[in-house]
Automatic annotation (TrEMBL):
<feature type="domain" description="LysM">
    <location>
        <begin position="87"/>
        <end position="132"/>
    </location>
</feature>
<dbReference type="InterPro" id="IPR018392">
    <property type="entry name" value="LysM"/>
</dbReference>
<dbReference type="Pfam" id="PF01476">
    <property type="entry name" value="LysM"/>
</dbReference>
<feature type="domain" description="HTH cro/C1-type">
    <location>
        <begin position="30"/>
        <end position="46"/>
    </location>
</feature>
<dbReference type="Pfam" id="PF26349">
    <property type="entry name" value="YoqH"/>
</dbReference>
<dbReference type="InterPro" id="IPR058968">
    <property type="entry name" value="YoqH-like"/>
</dbReference>
<dbReference type="InterPro" id="IPR036779">
    <property type="entry name" value="LysM_dom_sf"/>
</dbReference>
<feature type="domain" description="LysM">
    <location>
        <begin position="22"/>
        <end position="67"/>
    </location>
</feature>
<dbReference type="InterPro" id="IPR001387">
    <property type="entry name" value="Cro/C1-type_HTH"/>
</dbReference>
<protein>
    <submittedName>
        <fullName>LysM repeat-containing protein</fullName>
    </submittedName>
</protein>
Length: 253
């Protein structure tokens, strides 16, 4: 009886576990690595969630950890839909946001932004479903078409290449663009690419020949471009902010 009392006294037990977590009692043979694998989290995550464990390398039977509550087998968190250019990916045992982001070559923040149905990216379970970007087949060259049918002779292109450092180079070209001043209080054109979860990036195009309507510009960004991203050429004013609408549009594929 005395030994039982001593064991209970020595057991490391948290005061409470936060919402979404349950108590797990350590049994003989358990290690933090084994428990982390069982609940599909990292060892570091368990250490942070269990500050009452003085030495993570020394667990004893009777110690209690706070671990994520797992959904019933076959029941995963599934998004209603994915953004354009994204596809559904079902989580497997051993997956993590960081591993998935690394495998498909995108920043982890992009996955977090586009998967709001997963409230804590550190806690995912087999059967959960994520929206992940459909990768571009690089190099990618895409046609930009006029939005207004009256500008049928105006067109452009959006080309994406992969740099040696892994970043994306986006080059937007406009051909037969009218002098921007003919469209309103404008003196130039901007290229713009829309990216789900971020909004997008805009950048100035440089006139190669205003008479021939040839404009070109480029942007180097993190490898976050994916199939389905919308690309536009928009009239702009370099000195003041003037509302404008795109004249050319296209989609990366």
């Amino acid at each position: 009886m005395k030994n039982d009392i001593d064991n209970k006294t020595r057991a490391q037990i948290p005061e409470r576990c936060r919402i979404g977590f349950q108590r797990y009692t350590v049994v003989k043979g358990d290690t933090l690595e084994k428990i982390a694998k069982r609940f599909n989290v990292t060892v570091g995550f368990l250490i942070v969630e269990n500050p009452h464990i003085k030495d993570p390398n020394k667990l004893s039977p009777g110690d209690v950890l706070c671990v994520p509550i797992q959904p019933p087998p076959g029941v995963g968190r599934i998004p209603e839909s994915c953004p354009i250019g994204y596809e559904k990916y079902t989580i497997k045992s051993g997956d993590s946001f960081s591993k998935i982001a690394q495998n498909i070559g995108v920043p982890i923040d992009l996955l977090i932004w586009n998967n709001p149905h997963i409230p804590d990216p550190n806690i995912i379970f087999p059967g959960d479903v994520l929206c992940i970007p459909v990768p571009l087949k690089l190099p990618s060259c895409n046609l930009l078409k006029p939005i207004n049918p009256s500008m049928q002779n105006t067109f452009g292109s959006a080309m994406v290449q992969k740099q040696q450092n892994g970043q994306h180079l986006l080059v937007i070209t406009g051909v037969n663009l009218p002098n921007p001043s003919l469209l309103g209080n404008y003196d130039g054109y901007d290229g713009f690419v829309g990216i789900a979860g971020i909004g997008g990036y805009g950048f100035q195009l440089t006139p190669v020949s205003i008479e021939e309507g040839l404009w070109i510009g480029s942007l180097i960004i993190f490898p976050i471009l994916s199939s389905g991203n919308q690309v536009y050429i928009i009239p702009s004013n370099s000195e003041v902010s003037v509302p404008s609408k795109p004249i050319l549009e296209g989609m990366l594929k």
